[in-house]
Amino acid sequence: MYIRRTAIKSRKDGSNYYSYRLVESKRTEKGVRQQTLLNLGSDFALPREQWLELTKRIEGILSGQHSFVDINHDIGQLAQSYVTTPKVVVK
After folding, report:
1. pLDDT class for 44, splitting at 50, 70, 90?
2. H/E run at residue 35
3. What are phi and psi of 11, to 5 degrees?
4. Any idea what the Cα angle at residue 36 is, between residues 90 and 19, rounded to 5°?
């Protein structure tokens, strides 16, 4: 799993903005495909250095695993909020 930043062109005024998505790569008969698991939105403001920690925490929540390692409290809350919001695209 990883976070992908996607450039999107606005339909209203033609301006560009970025949307962030949690993506998982899967091997299929047609080759490797990426599947969006969560739409993190365009207001995603977490520094890139913390993306891996957030990704691992979201993966743990989605798989039902509890973390035995101390994690950043803010990242834990952010991960929980992304998993429980209506933006969820889970398989």
Report:
1. confident
2. strand 31-41
3. -75, -30
4. 120
